[in-house]
């Protein structure tokens, strides 16, 4: 592809139409019920029968329709969608809480599946990739730790020591998203395998089955008070957790290399889902503005509301275009060239989506902050994106470094 | 008082010192434990023994020390503090979740007590004011309704019809803050008593005991997913709720008159507590910035963090001064002149506190959005203040109207 | 074109390269000298010999190289560039003060030439279009008036009355950009021809030669103190200005119809030139940040400067993409569908460029506000764009109306 | 004064009333005429007869009325106003271009006079202080230099070498404000007297008469294109400029000590004048919003204009209170404690005034950026304040350092 085509391709249009319609007509209407079921069986960390019915029902329908595993790029098994094409679908999936999972396109599974596919042994693929591709199990990605600033990932400290044919892991991880889910069977864990190697070669990634002895679920981290059960963001303790040596991915010291490859597309997906959330929020805001009245007029006609709506529209358009550009850069095959673009959207997309959602909340008044709309939940989720996969400050720093480097070279 | 003295008076200083120290040394350390107890007895809407012990213990200590009912202005029974003086104490109380209640200065009790004192009969005072002053019971203020835009309070629609010696109420109220508390015994309710009277004389306020037959607790409204149990913001249904006619306050059609008198000081208290929350957030942000390291340096020395801290300091100072000025205006005895100042702080103080808290959250990373600091909870509470007692837009409108009026008169 | 290709086409690349290089290597170095010449001959409203030499020299070179009249879209005489393609060139031209004129692509000439080409008689074309295409004369577009809010163009009041074979014009116009230039020979004037017709059919456009008797140049409007001589934004008085009846364009009452067609592309050009100005400002900011030292470090490493640079980069990228999208919409052949996109960029592009330029100025310190860089002049020019062709508020209103309309239709 | 009284004192009220009225009724109406006279006699750097008549006429009136030299604090010769009291007057003076000078309270004269009074010999006082106090001559303060980042004042490099009974100065200064005025007779110059001393003891201040041989006026720096004649911000060259040794103030190496004492009050005055400019801008904005119509309504009733006006009012109130607090801190007698407050207002007051003025400009449309209102000129002047006496970034840094220091001490 030599042209910078940021539009939908012809082959994507019918798929997009189907995904979009299914999200709006079939998934969104069930979101609230799914949430309301949490804990009804007395255990927030298992699925009720109704939850299973909802989720598996949606997945079965999606799969039947061939709307499944879109993220499998350039593969015989998948659609072979470009990142730009996938981005348009991610936006639609972002509009419903169960959107991504319905199509087996959830984080962190998509990134984890890519890792297993690229670097796993046949055994790993059979054990974890196959059921992940089928949507039978789920996975988690264990990165951040409570005692260190994970914004600087070289701080990661969980020890991983070779002992015969095994590696033995000790330490704590938190914000292990999805680890609360009873279906979560496999963790990909960032560990420290050396203190002597160069700074970016001290870390490794390793596969750890969720049921390995020595792992304790200390607690669920809450996001603005919400434990996000049964998905959950767990705080885990590893005490002498022992796994076979060939679970170590690619070799000792290659953790950052894998992380970089893994995070790029994932960040684009996150950002486009955020754009989807922003679009939903703007739609709800507009509808509210037209239907609700105060002082004898629809809210739309009061005060700055036209301006607020216009600003939201403009910011969404710009953020979306930037995401599509980053996706297009990714499709050009040079991840290093794409990196600063991904840093840009990582800052911009959550910010815009947070702003639009906050304005929508304000337009709804008390209802906006409550459980009666999807806005408040959406906001807290979006707020995590300003921290997950690197806080804003780290990404801004990357963008600036690339910018300044242009002129350093000039000097020489 | 002819001078615009916005500082602490000599008489206030020792009181302020005691309150400040008690908040920091005795109340704050118990906040988290109090929260963690919620629901441990299987019922989120009752107090556990430990919660009662914590809360009553703090209250007893405060009362023993004479740190009680500060809000009683110009009264024989209270300190007779000015609004400015009280404001400084409210800031301190705002720093801990249990701060205000420890000193029997919680919303909505303070405003409700003032209403009972001014307009209640001797019976009302004996039954409700006395135990409220003692901190034995609590109260709620029922204003907003799910079906109308309460930002325009003339929309309030709960019917209240005279029937013999009684009034009979029908309708729904939500965001009835504190109505979840088992100690909440009395509601002050905004109702519509006429459709024919001039627009601002169709509404009335009435006392309704919480246990009056016909009141159903439909559900607790959640704030970004948090039900705020056992305090709670309830959605209530009134079906043929019958109370004695002399429960109607001041007479039919005087609801807005009472609301205006009631809300002014309450808004100042809210705003100063928000300033207290902002100060706590800034303190935590600074400590974090100095202790946490990344990329080989304390966070403080990275990127824009100095600028962020400075901006937070400046915005807090300005917002506090504006609150103190509004309090001083209130003390001048002309509520109408004070009104636009109160509208100003109602917009400014929550906004600043939200911003500072959000920056603190960002400095803390994942921990900031979690249950491990008070920041996330503080943020969601502050967010409600942009809606409670009138959304920002309504207050901005008031400020602008006063501003423009200056030049209308000039034209004549 | 069915794909949304926002990149440079293959045919554009060599042209873009030539334009970009000429701007940077030949035009920019002469900008300051050109400015410094103003008034050296004792008359700010004529060209000095050196100014003529600079400007005509550049134009001759550009023309020789075939870099001329790029704006002529889909024409036999021009390149037939799409709006997207032209947009990339406009960005480059925006980087130098004399950029657009060098390539005979200045406002308001491009828009005016289109009007003459589409609606002019053969005589008009011979007299005005031919020399405009040659870069021999210049033109102005007279729209706004001192006594009415021109943001609502239906307020335009200059009278234009049929009298025999002529029309007779009376009234005042201001902000007649370019009317100060001695080479400016023809005005296109918005006038009111009827008070009875429907609101948007009361106005007309008419050709008025600059030397028609009855026109007085009252004064030059200053932009933040700068008269922008010899170009100039004049305040003109029309007293019984008489022109042949067939100078009236398209017929009475069709003024808005022509204005709409005329302004769309012009706004895109303005916006892309603004992006070019922003790019130049960012480049200068970065270079300054690396070369200038304070407190023992390059400015780049101090405080929030990395963050500032990153934010500027991100905002420029987003604004550019939005402009390209608007240009692409324009290329789709449905101006009505493109209109809200043009409104969006009309708000966004000047805002971003102003912000970036202001940050660059701040990075330069005192030098930034002075005549020693192009930043201050660039800023004041950009500031006019928030008002010219409709103030921000009007464009935001348009964007919001389109947004809300989506849901009005849904209701039916 | 133990109380934090930020209001007007009784003694100030009648003075304030007189100053306020004189500014509005006598000075403001002459501002535009004064500006329009610049250069009418063929020399922008001398006063026309009419300019002298306007300025001296106003000064004579002010002096007759005893409204003169208000800045003389705690002095027998002056009013002995506190900084808070003076601040209220500075706000009024800021509303007119000739406001401060009319009352002999202009920058940089007030600061310079304080320096001469405190540190000058009797000869210095006789020669310069006396006529300055009379308003007969003016002065300049020469600090920044073109070749170094003056934000870090330790970079100041003008050499000053002892040679017998003289000092000999060499180097360049720019932004020498007021040095264009033919009445400007004395410069206070920051020079470098040592390269060996500790960093903050290498600089000194020295009196240099404006007519000393060796000083060349290279050019006038322009502010967004305006040379601010006849006041002027000059770029000066010093070549072997020789002055008597006792012109060196306080002794070698004490330049920073003097600068600190000199700048504090000056910054407060600048900030309060900025508040005055903001008030004028808001007043003009409101009047415009009510008188100008578009789309059938006064502008005030369109779009976000109520919100814009309200935000401006709130920001002005907060900024003014912060300035008054800083002034009050200054009055407490501990400049070191006052310093971070002055840094705060140095960031805040120009920012708020710029914002309000920019909104006013936008409300006025084309007229706002033109010479027809005082807004554009006011804006460019305000913009210089974000750089003069230290750029925002430096002041934010100071505020943050004080903030963080609180917790460093705690750690010990």
From TrEMBL, chains A, B, C, D:
Question: What GO cellular component term, any one, is given?
Answer: cytoplasm
| Names of required cofactors | FAD
The alphabetical list of record keywords is: FAD, Flavoprotein, Oxidoreductase
Q: Which residues form the Acyl-CoA dehydrogenase/oxidase C-terminal domain?
A: 253-402
> What InterPro entries does the record tag this protein with?
Acyl-CoA_dehydrogenase (IPR050741), Acyl-CoA_Oxase/DH_mid-dom (IPR006091), Acyl-CoA_Oxase/DH_mid-dom_sf (IPR046373), AcylCo_DH-like_C (IPR036250), AcylCo_DH/oxidase_C (IPR009075), AcylCoA_DH/ox_N (IPR013786), AcylCoA_DH/ox_N_sf (IPR037069), AcylCoA_DH/oxidase_NM_dom_sf (IPR009100)
Domain Acyl-CoA oxidase/dehydrogenase middle, by residue range, is: 140-237
Descriptive protein name: Acyl-CoA dehydrogenase
Species of provenance = Nitratireductor mangrovi
Print the organism lineage.
Bacteria, Pseudomonadati, Pseudomonadota, Alphaproteobacteria, Hyphomicrobiales
């Amino acid at each position: 592809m030599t042209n910078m085509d940021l539009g939908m391709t012809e082959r994507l249009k019918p798929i997009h139409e189907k995904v979009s319609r299914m999200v709006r007509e079939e998934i969104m209407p069930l979101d609230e019920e799914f949430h309301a079921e949490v804990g009804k069986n007395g255990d927030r960390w298992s699925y009720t029968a109704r939850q299973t019915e909802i989720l598996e029902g949606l997945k079965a329908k999606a799969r039947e329709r061939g709307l499944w595993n879109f993220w499998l790029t350039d593969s015989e098994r998948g659609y072979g969608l470009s990142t730009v094409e996938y981005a348009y679908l991610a936006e639609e999936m972002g509009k419903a809480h169960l959107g991504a999972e319905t199509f087996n396109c959830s984080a962190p599974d998509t990134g984890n599946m890519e890792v297993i596919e690229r670097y796993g042994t046949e055994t790993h693929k059979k054990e974890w990739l196959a059921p992940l591709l089928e949507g039978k199990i789920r996975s988690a990605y264990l990165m951040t730790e409570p005692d260190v600033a994970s914004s600087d990932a070289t701080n990661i400290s969980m020890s991983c020591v070779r002992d015969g044919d095994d590696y033995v892991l000790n330490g704590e991880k938190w914000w292990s998203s999805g680890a609360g889910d009873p279906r979560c069977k496999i963790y990909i864990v960032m560990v420290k395998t050396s203190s002597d190697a160069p700074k970016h070669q001290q870390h490794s990634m390793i596969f750890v089955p969720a049921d390995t002895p020595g792992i304790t679920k200390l607690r669920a981290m809450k996001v603005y008070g919400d434990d996000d059960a049964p998905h959950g963001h767990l705080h885990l303790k590893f005490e002498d957790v022992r796994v076979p040596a060939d679970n170590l991915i690619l070799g000792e010291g290659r953790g950052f290399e894998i992380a970089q490859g893994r995070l790029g597309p994932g960040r684009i997906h996150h950002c486009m889902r955020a754009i989807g959330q922003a679009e939903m929020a703007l739609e709800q805001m507009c509808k509210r503005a037209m239907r609700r009245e105060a002082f004898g007029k629809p809210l739309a006609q009061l005060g700055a509301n036209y301006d607020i709506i216009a600003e939201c529209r403009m910011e969404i358009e710009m953020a979306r275009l930037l995401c599509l550009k980053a996706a297009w850069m990714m499709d050009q095959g040079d991840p290093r060239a794409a990196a600063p673009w991904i840093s840009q959207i990582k800052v911009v997309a959550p910010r815009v989506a947070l702003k639009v959602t906050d304005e929508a909340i304000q337009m709804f008044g008390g209802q906006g902050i409550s459980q009666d709309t999807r806005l408040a939940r959406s906001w807290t989720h979006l707020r995590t994106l300003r921290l997950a996969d690197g806080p804003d400050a780290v990404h801004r720093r990357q963008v600036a470094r690339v910018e300044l480097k242009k002129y350093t070279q000039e000097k020489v």
